[in-house]
Input
Amino acid sequence: MPMARPTTRLHYYFKYIPNKGGWGHFLTTPGILDNTWMKLREVSLAYKFPASFNSKTRIFQDLTLSLVGRDLFYLYTSLPDRINPEGSNGSGNAQGLEWASFPGTRSFGINLNASF
Output
């Protein structure tokens, strides 16, 4: 009779940092990883309205509309299992571990620059 495959899933903490929560313990080799990454930090697409449009409105001397996206995605990361490369920026005793840090946030915005 074939053996059944385990169906239990473990959090990656238990795979890479088996003694993560104990005081007086040291990180084991599986918990030391190369953290190389490249991120698309910000993209901005802008449209500058032509001078003819500005002269017709008689309000604006210059008008620019732009769409901005920040922290969109990682272009490359050397970390396995979708570990957050910037998660080691924790605070207090958790520095260097993906622990006690805020998750990354993606944001989108619209900018309107006007000169009167």
Notes: The helical segments are 12-16, 51-57. Residues 33-115 form one domain.
